[in-house]
């Protein structure tokens, strides 16, 4: 169970990082 939960947290962190990168790219464009 712990491993599966950890995997979910990693996926969430990756999505947050991707959103952060996309936001930064949009900010730099304007």
Query: Pairing-aware structural class of the strands and helices?
Result: mainly alpha
Largest sheet: none
| Cα shape | rod-shaped
Mean pLDDT: 85
Radius of gyration from the CA trace?
13 Å
What's the assembly state of these chains? single chain
Encode the helix/strand succession as letters.
Answer: H
Fraction in helix: over 70%
Low-confidence parts = none
Beta-strand percentage? under 5%
Q: What's the number of extended β-strand segments?
A: 0
* Straight-line distance between termini: 44 Å
How would you sum up this structure in a few lines?
By secondary structure, this protein is mainly alpha-helical.
Would you kindly provide a written description of the structure presented here, covering whatever features stand out?
The chain is built from one helix and no strands. The protein has 30 residues and is mainly alpha-helical. The radius of gyration is 13 Å and the shape is rod-shaped. The N and C termini lie far apart (44 Å). The relative contact order is 0.12. The mean pLDDT is 85.
């Amino acid at each position: 169970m712990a491993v599966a939960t950890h995997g979910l947290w990693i996926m969430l962190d990756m999505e947050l990082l991707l959103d952060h990168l996309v936001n930064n790219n949009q900010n730099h464009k304007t």
